[in-house]
Design goal:
143 residues, 5 helices
Length: 143
């Protein structure tokens, strides 16, 4: 099981996409039908979101053909929605295809922000407190 795939399923679960009574898991490494993870949003799995993740270097952008292939994989699995996550970016063609196919795209910049916001795959290194003078305290007269 790929740690990155597991982390992405964990992130989407923390974001609430698993649903309160749903389930989430990473698919097997081979013969997964092009799907890296599944989020069942209800106990019966009637509403499911399929996940595809790609760890690409910056500049190696995901194109329209990859999104179209993912859409075909969604269709074969009987799903009507998916999330495609990459550490890089998407081409304009990929973005247009994703809108047509009900696929949410998460690029590297958005992924970084989500990981920080939901504290998945990151840890706090330092915390700072910022103080200011309480002017009301000094304006009060002792009686």
């Amino acid at each position: 099981m790929d740690r990155f795939e597991k982390m992405m399923i964990n992130l989407l679960s923390k974001m609430g996409y698993k649903g309160p009574d749903g389930d989430a898991w990473v698919t097997q490494k081979t013969n997964d039908g092009g799907i890296d993870g599944i989020l069942n949003q209800d106990p019966l799995g009637l509403r499911k979101v399929l996940i595809q993740v790609k760890r690409y270097e910056e500049g190696n952008n995901v194109g329209r053909q990859t999104i179209s292939q993912f859409h075909g994989d969604l269709d074969l699995q009987g799903a009507d929605r998916g999330v495609f996550i990459t550490t890089s970016s998407f081409t304009k063609g990929a973005e247009m295809a994703a809108k047509t196919f009900n696929i949410k795209l998460i690029d590297g910049d958005t992924l970084t922000k989500l990981m920080i916001d939901y504290k998945v795959g990151v840890q706090v290194q330092k915390t700072y407190e910022l103080f200011e003078i309480d002017n009301d305290f000094f304006d009060k007269k002792d009686n």
